[in-house]
Amino acid sequence: MRRPLLPAVILALVFLFLIGPFLVIVVSSFSGTASMSFPPEGFSGRWYAKVFGIEMFRTTFMVSLKAGLAATVTALVLGIPVAYVITRHTFRGKGVVELFFASPAIVPGLVIGFALLRFFVYLSGLPVITGLYLGHTAILFPYTVRVVSASLRNFDPAVEEAAVSLGSTRLHGFFAVVFPNIRSGIAAAFILAFITSFNNVPISLFLTGPGVATLPIQMLIYMEYYFDPTISALSSIIIVLTVVIVQAAERLLGITRYM
Amino acid sequence: MAYVELQSVTAGYVAHDPVLRDFSLRVERGELLSLLGPSGCGKTTTLRTIAGFLLAQEGRVVVNGRDYTRLPPNKRNIGIVFQTYALFPHLSVFDNVAYGLRRRRVSRQEISTRVAGALELVSLTGLEERLPAHLSGGQRQRVALARAIVIEPDLLLLDEPLSNLDAKLRDEMRGELARLQKQLGITMIYVTHDQVEALSLSSRIVVMNQGVIEQSDTPQAIFERPATPFVAHFMGFDNALSGTCREILGDRAVVEVSGHRFECRALPGGKELSAGEAVRLLFRPVDVRFVGADGADRLNTLPVRMEFSNYQGTSTLCGLVSGDQRLTAVVDGAVPPADGDLHVQIEPGAILLDTVTYESVGGKDG
What we know:
The structure holds 2 protein chains of 2 kinds.
Chain A: H1 5-28, H2 46-53, H3 55-88, H4 94-106, H5 109-123, H6 128-153, H7 157-165, H8 170-178, H9 183-199, H10 202-207, H11 215-225, H12 230-253
Helix pairs in contact in A: 1-12, 2-12, 3-6, 3-9, 3-11, 4-6, 5-6, 6-9, 7-8, 9-12
Chain B: E1 4-11, E2 20-27, E3 32-36, H1 43-51, E4 58-63, E5 66-67, E6 78-81, H2 93-103, H3 108-121, H4 137-149, E7 155-159, H5 167-184, E8 188-192, H6 195-201, E9 204-209, E10 212-217, H7 219-224, H8 229-234, E11 239-249, E12 252-257, E13 260-265, E14 278-283, E15 288-291, E16 301-311, E17 315-322, E18 325-332, E19 342-346, E20 352-355
Parallel strand pairs in B: 3-8, 3-9, 6-7, 7-8
Antiparallel strand pairs in B: 1-2, 1-4, 4-5, 9-10, 11-12, 11-14, 12-13, 14-20, 15-19, 16-17, 16-19, 17-18
C-alpha cells in the first residue's frame, strides 16, 4: 500500500513553520562572528559565556523570577477558589463572572498594560516591582482559573459528597479528597502561569521603570544597542529550560491534558 | 412517627421551580424502600434532600426522631452509595473505608477491627492496600458499600448503585445487597429506574413521576395491580387497545373493542366509569395468547394479523395488527403457524382499564 504523499509534505511544512525559527535562533547562537547571520560562519560558545557575564541579564532574570513566582502563587491562591465556585455551583450572573475572568486573556496585552500603568503607577504611585507583581497576578489569574477549572471538571463531584456524608465539612473535604486529586492540574496551572509571566512583554513594558526591568524587556533593550548572537544564546537557554520543565512536568504529572 | 419522614417537603435546584412540591414520604425502620421512576421524576432529588445535599425549602425531614431539616449533611449519620462509587482515588481500600471512622475520632485499634469487619462483610479481605484504580467495577462497588456501612449509619441511601455494572455482576450484587440488608437490618432507600431491580430487592416500592408519588406498595402489588396508567406503563403494560365501555358489573367492566367483547377489571383508584365512555385496555405483551381458529367466539379474543415476528430464543416477539390498532405479543418458543386468521386472547385479570383523556386519544402508534 502506498502512503499518500501530500499529507506528509504538508505536515513537514507545518513543523518547519513552527520549529524553524527556533532552529535558526539555536544555530545562530553558536555563531563565530559578532553579527547575526544565517547560516552562521564559524563556531563559538562565547555568546553563552557572555550571557552570564552581563549583570543586567542576571538582575533582570531575578526580577522576572521573583515577580513571576510571586504572581503565579498569588494567582493560584485566588484562582483555585474561583475555579471551584465556577465548576461546582450555578448562580445568577455566572456567565458574566466567567467572562470577567477570561477577559485578560482576550483583551490585548498592550491595553491591559496601559490600563495597569495608569492605575498602579500614576494613580497609586506604587513601587515598580509591586506594580509588576500586581499586574502579572492580574494577567495570570484567568490562566490559573481556567486550568484548575479543567481539572476540577474532570473530578467527580460525588467524591466530595461522599467525604461530606462521612463527616467532613465542605472545606475539610476539599483539602482531604479534592486537593490531592487535582494536584497535577494545579501544577499545570503553576507552570503555564509562570511561563506566561516569564515571557510576558506587553504588560511588563508598561510596568517597568527606571532601574527595574524583566528579562524579556532587558533583552529588547539590549537588542536596540547590540545585534550580536548573545540574544540568540539567551533565547536558546530559555527555550531549553522551558522544554525541559514542561517535559519533566508532563512525564511526572501529565499536565498537558489540562491545558 | 415513622423512622424516616419527609413532611410536605418542597425541594429542588432552583427556587422558583422546585422538583418536589408538598412531598411526603414515610419509611419504616428496617425497610428497603425503592424509589422507582424515569429520570427527572424526582427520585434523586428526594434522596439528596434526605442526605442533606439539598435543603428543603419548605417542610420537614425527620430521621430516627431527629429533625434533620436544617442539619448539614456531615452531621447526619447517613451512609451513601453513589452511582459512580465516588471512591477517594488517592486512598487505599483500607483508608477509603476508614475515612468516616477517622472523622468520627474512633481509636486506631477500633478502626482496624471495624474496617476489617466491613471488608469481610463485602468479601474484600486481602485487598486493603489496593488503590481504587486497581479494582474491578464490582470490587469498587463493594468498597463503596463497606465505606458507607462501616460508620453504622442510621440510614443507607443508594443512588442507582448497580447501573454501572454489567448484567451478570448486577445480579450478583443485587443478591449481595439483599443479603446485607437482611444481615444488618439497616434501613435502606434505594433509587433506581430499573423495575427488575426494584421488584427483586425492595420490601416496598414507591413509583414516582414528575415529583409526585404515583403508587406506594409491595413489589407484587405494584407489578400486578398498578394504580395508575403511568405505573402500568412503567411496569410493562405496553399494549393499549382503544374501546368503549358498555357496562359495569361490580368490579368488572365490559368493553367493546372493534366489535369484540372484552371483560376486565374496573378502573383502578376507584374512579367512576360510565357506559359509553371511551377507554383503553392496558396489558402486557406476555399476557397475549394465541388461540386456535375456534377461538373467535371465546371471551376476550380479537382477530389479528401478524405483521412481524422476532425469534429471540426462549420467546418470540410478535407485532400484531387488528383493524387499525397495533399490539405486541411475547410468546414462549417459536411463532405459531401464521397461515389464515389468527386470534389472540387476553385474560380478564391481566387487563387494566384507563379512561381516555384528551392527550391519549391519539394513542401510541410509534
